[in-house]
């Protein structure tokens, strides 16, 4: 009935020309149609207007014939122009048909759809905002159309729609953002340019709060920074720079949601993306302050690896941010998660870059200084990692690890746990003892008091069931004791142990474990000037089996006697007034140039060892004996 009514209103020649293959005929038919609709609008005959629109949509725009579809589109545009101010009430009939044609297989139909909607938009302006999301989605797809003419037409329509939106007070940013967020993941360069263009335009409208919705599309903008197109990277960077400036000037910003995005982007493979993300984090830390406390750990986890970045600009910004973070003195009661921060620092101790490992250790020290009780709760989670870090190839890292250990060990219960763990690690890894043992023990003695450290080590080694390890460990400790400048005070205490009752227990405590090594106990006795006992120990060695290890230790002892530590011993004259036989023997035994007698005894013992040993060491001992 409606179709028949429309056919009655519109001459058959107009309908025929509307679907003609020639554009001019279709255009002229559209002009006639415009006049007909205008007359109907003046007469207020809305039923016939609806009938005409239905005819154009059903019989033309949805026709299987391309020319019919083209005619239907130009006809709908003409009808809208004819309706003028009354067009808005018919948009529900007109716009969906035009939008449907945006996905037509025929590129010319798509082109005319853009043209039709352009003309419709010019007439109705802000009234078609209710269709904005559908129009935006259609334009988004057409921006990447395979036909250049369609792209050009879509671009003109896009400009008009932007003008309308910027002047319209009915635009709903809340309804638009979900669509924008969804489209931000598209990789097509034309679509990306389209999206950045819209973000920039909407952000320029004073009444539209794009900053409030920035977390919804921030990740998409960052994703564009690594685009292969220089123009797209530049546009995305420009948009991000503008938003960052707005953040600096805004009193209220949702830092949290954006911080999560920045943390992810700071680990991007793209250098420019990393730099931009770290720069944003730097500004957030300066501006956000307490608001970022819940994200403190995540931010730190992003910044620490960047401190060692291959790009200098990133390293500089990351270091600055790291110091800013350290300057924020947050409280656990305010949401500051000590355990999470500690976990990040522990994980970064495995980073291949030295600078990152160093900063991770400094964070551990900072946490211990500010939140000691909270850190100790998680001690078991980090202690093993800290002990493994003692094998780090970097001396600076090892020294910082020791500082952290020393800070932990201020409490007696943790002090013993540290020393036990340390001895255990030395036992598991002899190379650690060999390469880093001296550095570790010397530094701990400085940080924790040498007497305290040595007494604890002695107590542990006294009951060690692995005698070979105990001997090696004691030999190492003895060498450190006798040669390290950091232990000079401890040596002075030991020298007073026989005349000062207060230090007597020190000598006796060390003696108990030093017995694991004959040469160590001899040197300890000589250090405290217990010559008579040293003589007894030396005499007993004659009855021992002479093997390779024994001879090596003997050689080390002889060389030790030539060190500054025993200068007083070499220069001290024998007390000939009333020396006991034992004292004289001890004195003679410890003098290098008079040790030939004892070495000859050892040489006789070597003859009882296997043939290979005699061949290996006879020459060695003969050289020592015949030396001047």
Please characterize this protein's 3D structure:
The protein has 628 residues and is an all-alpha fold. Among the domains are: 1-171, Leucine-rich Repeat Variant (Alpha Horseshoe); 188-248, no CATH class. The protein has helices spanning 2-9, 12-18, 23-43, 46-61, 66-83, 91-100, 107-124, 132-142, 148-167, 173-183, 189-204, 214-224, 230-249, 255-265, 271-288, 296-306, 312-327, 338-348, 354-370, 372-377, 379-388, 395-408, 412-428, 430-448, 450-462, 467-483, 488-495, 501-514, 518-527, 531-541, 548-560, 567-571, 581-590, 596-606, 611-626. Helix 14 (255-265) packs antiparallel against helix 15 (271-288) and helix 14 (255-265) packs parallel to helix 16. Residues 431-572 form the Vacuolar protein 14 C-terminal Fig4-binding domain. Keywords: Membrane, Repeat. Pfam families: Vac14_Fab1_bd (PF12755), Vac14_Fig4_bd (PF11916). HEAT repeats lie at residues 94-129.
